[in-house]
Amino acid sequence: xxxxxxxxxxxxxxxxxxxxxxxxxxxxxxxxxxxxxxxxxxxxxxxxxxxxxxxxxxxxxxxxxxxxxxxxxxxxxxxxxxxxxxxxxxxxxxxxxxxxxxxxxxxxxxxxxxxxxxxxxxxxxxxxxxxxxxxxxxxxxxxxxxxxxxxxxxxxxxxxxxxxxxxxxxxxx
Length: 173
Prior knowledge:
The protein is α+β, with helices and mostly antiparallel strands. It has helices at 4-12, 19-27, 48-51, 162-169; strands at 61-70, 81-85, 91-95, 101-105, 116-121, 124-127, 156-159. Strand 2 (81-85) and strand 3 (91-95) form a beta hairpin. It is globular and about 55 Å long. The strands form two sheets. The chain has a four-stranded antiparallel sheet. Strands 4-1-7 form a three-stranded mixed sheet. 26% of the residues are buried.
């Protein structure tokens, strides 16, 4: 009889839900108008909030994020090659889509942290100055709309300004 309250609690519980995760998903808000769910949605948001294995998305990613052309601007960088190398030396690369986003499917590769990331866009190659220690969702640290500061390095971007970006598209001499 002394276990009855515990057993009742288990029987009445709605399942193994994580309220912290549920709150994080809710905080993302609704979908942007005119962009259906799929590989082009939610650019700049922390992809693994939904695609990290706890749902609600069915597809699990191991690493995912969005790359922008310029610092502090909203123009994304489609066609950027993102090279991810894990601590065992295994590397994989993926190219950003029309929304500037990339993802590595968890069924294809679960890299061993820490990770090193290098971006290539035209003639510009940029290596992330620090390693990624634990989060496969880039926007966990690179907050959308942020200019950087003590709590975030800001968005992932290719060039600091328009003249630097122009250099990326000039033919190599």
